[in-house]
From TrEMBL, chain A:
Keywords: Membrane, Transmembrane, Transmembrane helix. Residues 1-35 are annotated as: Disordered. The chain crosses the membrane at residues 38-55, 67-89. It comes from Virgisporangium aliadipatigenens. This is DUF3311 domain-containing protein. It holds the Pfam family DUF3311. The keyword Transit peptide does not apply.
Automatic annotation (TrEMBL), chain B:
Pfam families: SSF. This is Solute:Na+ symporter, SSS family protein. Belongs to the sodium:solute symporter (SSF) (TC 2.A.21) family. It is found in: Membrane. Its main location: membrane. It comes from Virgisporangium aliadipatigenens. Residues 538-559 are annotated as: Disordered. It is a multi-pass membrane protein. PROSITE patterns: NA_SOLUT_SYMP_3. Coiled coil: none annotated.
Amino acid sequence: MEDRRARWQTAPLPRVTDPDPERYRSHRSGGRRRGSRWHWLLWLPVIIALFPAIFNRAEPTLMGLPFYYWGQLAFALLCAVLTAVVHLATKGR
Amino acid sequence: MVVPAQHSTEFWIFMATFVGIAVTGLLAARWRPAQNVHTLEEWGLGGRAFGNWVTFFLLSGDVFTAYTFVALPTLVFGLGGIGFGMTYFAIAFPMVFVLLARFWSVSHVHGFVTPAEFVRARFGSRSLAAGIAITGIVATMPYIALQLVAIEAVFTVMGLPRGLPLTIAFAVLALFTFVSGLRAPALISIVKDALVVWTVLTVLLIVFTRDGGWATVTKAADTRFNASPNPIDGLFLLPDNYLQYVTSAMGAAVALFLYPHTLTAALAAKNRSTLRRNLAVMPLYSLTLGILALAGLVAILDGVRPLDGDGNTVLPLWFDKAFPDWAAALAYSAIAVGAMVPAAIMSIAVANLFTRDVYRVYIKPDATPGQETRVSRIVSLGAKIGAVLVILLIDTQFAFDLQLIGGGFILQTLPAVAFGLYTAWFHRYALFAGLVAGLVTCLALLYDVPQLGGPDGRTVVREHFGGSAWPLSNLGIDTNASVYVGFIALAINLIVIVVGTPLLRALGVKDGTDKTDARDYYADEGDERVRRLTDLLDGESESEGHPSGQHSWSGRATY
């Protein structure tokens, strides 16, 4: 048991040389890759969601449904569009 | 068996669907059969090989549980605007999109099956990992029980007796999970989504073909909320409730990422791009939940009254009233199947946590992949039996209390699991102390929240565990606003970690070794790095006498 524990604590991760170190150019400073600026877009739906005063209203109605309800469903759509854009923009980088 | 006379059409269609599901679940083991079934990667993660469509179905079946489908319309029916929490998804999905991809990559490189394994490798602490695993198990168990509550609501409306039908339903679920592992819910979730989409289309069709459409619906709801003396309900949010609404949404969104069953379903994706692509379109699925929640408003117009005071019967009752019999039966099946998929994944997630982070670390460190799988199968069975016993023997309220606690508990794993994906700065013991402080705070605060009810919504119905809104007036601030309890506990947790980390380092307490590399967090299937690591590790495990079979991932977690 002791033995096992010691090994578990000291077992080194095998060193592997990356074939294309350029891809991870700045990984030492926080592990960010190129293209991550696109991710800022994802904050948009989050920020809207944090301020209910923006969408807590009746007008404009959509087919009789108050904005509070259909607007939240529309955010879901917006969310899907934004994540899809970010995915496509950062794919394969 | 007694067929309820009034609901015989519904009953037989429901039964036919159910039998179809049971057969599908059992046959799932033969679907893309594994070369070696007796490894945890095969049973518990479907061989990490699910492609585009299956990943979508599995994740949506996991995130949108039957209980949510039943509980959300109930909330909207009872309270109106504050129950319509779609903003939760606007917070959850962007976050999950980024975090799950990182989690998938690091798990793929190192062969992790559970979040606790990641924590063990990242922070080098077995006890911290065990703490994360146990918190995950405790938080997920009541969630399984709630899926039963959803099925039970359907059975009640169909007029079936309590007890036996529920036991049979779960026995079937237990059987096919035991045999097929994660392949069963993956295959069944396809049927589930077809049924859900069908149900949602029926709801829309019914509302649109009515006179007045949504305008009549919202008018009727507005009238009822205005007539009730309860200060919380209403078609819209009250400014006093903003803080509670936002903090609850944030808490639930973060919890969505942290719940072990979400991570299990994500790890089953065959590569990083598949996972990201599916997560990108997942917000669309929340439209189905949104429309079902709106059905709660329609139920007000149609004058639905909950059966035996059980709020969860609102949606099934409305189906019964507004849908033709056969369509109602399909909607019931959607709920029942929608309960089985997440219940199966949750029980597998709980089993994997126990096997990889308790059994393998503390009980039998040299367990073979075959033994691991056997233990996982038995534990997943135990998790389901436990859930049935809680519902049938103790009472449903107990499950709700536990779920309330579990939701706050799982949030406390945020620093280690989610922040850990970005930084290893935290000291392992500071994380552990923070986790404990968070759990204790959460439990203590929830214990202190009374349940308010009565006609005016101000009478104390129950002394403890009455909700998760903690009034800020407790701090002496003159306001009616309240905060989600899990949030306060998380704040304390983080304070302990941020203060504790430099303190422990100043005292010279040794840090754990971080076994991950910054590049691991972006790795994808077929990357040069991943393949070489696999070869190296497989070579190592063979030389130790661990026959790892054909599958390259088995017997890997040496951390």
